[in-house]
Amino acid sequence: MFENSERTSIESLGEFGLIDHLTNMITIKQPSTKKGIGDDAAVIDFEGKKALISTDMLLEGIHFDLAYTPLKHLGYKSVQVNLSDIYAMNGIATQVTVSIGISSKFPLEAIEELYEGIYLACEKYNVDLVGGDTTSSRQGLVISVTSIGYADEKDIAYRNTAREGDLICVSGDLGGAYVGLQLLEREKLVYIENPNIQPDLEGKDYIVERQLKPEARKDIVEMLKDLKIKPTAMIDISDGLASEILHICKQSNKGCNIYEDKIPLDPMTYETAREFNLDPTVCALSGGEDYELLFTIKQADYEKIKLMMDISVIGHITEPSAGCNLITKSGVVHTITAQGWNAFKS
Ligand code: ADP
Ligand code: MG
Is residue 126 left, alpha or beta, with left meaning phi > 0 and alpha meaning psi from -120 to 50? Predict the structure, then answer.
């Protein structure tokens, strides 16, 4: 889905022409970027800090649907989901590389829109685009982003270091991206059946944005640093709260109690889930793509975290034999599974 109606063929530019066209106005912002685009490799110097590196690949038809995803949003999101992994290590993101595979159905204008989103994300999060690769694809669009960042060794937050008694915290609210996706999928079906009907997303901006334009939580990492809180463990929520808390507990060899009434839900997420006959709690547990941070802190840090807007304490870490449990609003204890669906329906 691209907005510009002109269609310049990419073939007419050639690979090098295209790369140059997309990257010639880059200015480097980070002092650690010693060499960006233009040589065989980028050169980065973190001067004694540990480098953090993470990659994600997005495939058309698997991870995104261009029927309702504007390319600018797609570019923005593909950078955000990668930066999120650096923040989930309690690090600072500084560079990205972007590799794309493009089929002949995409004119230059479409790729320009994709890069507008990529540059907007880089600008807003203060990261440099320092390289990538460009190839043609038989079918569909492929985007792979690698994010690079740094942290002091003592600040890095792993998944396997949660301790018994730690408080479990989550940023923002959950389930919105999944409910937003349900809405977009529904409107797509309506459109396929009758192309004269315009999508009805009125009043649903928040959850549609949660799906199409997520924001990685750099602000949370900065706030934690300001409050001198080091998370004892941290992960970002790409696959849903259930799956992520299980990663922390399994890797830390611990159990947990999560309280359903503490899970943060936006009212629009709640209402729209209900419209779709979905349990809002299940959307938070198993929906995914919220890109919030899930982390554990020492109990001693509770007084500090209490003051933080946008952080909810949703439970605590227990000994491993207690298992991983969700305590529902009515006080029933359920074992948390990665696909929370069946467990909570029964
Ligand atoms: P190589 O032959 O070494 O792979 P390329 O000709 O593919 O080099 O790339 C030339 C320069 O442009 C490199 O610095 C590379 O990182 C960068 N680059 C290539 N494709 C992209 C892209 N899609 N986005 C950003 N930078 C790119
Ligand atoms: Mg190359």
Answer: left
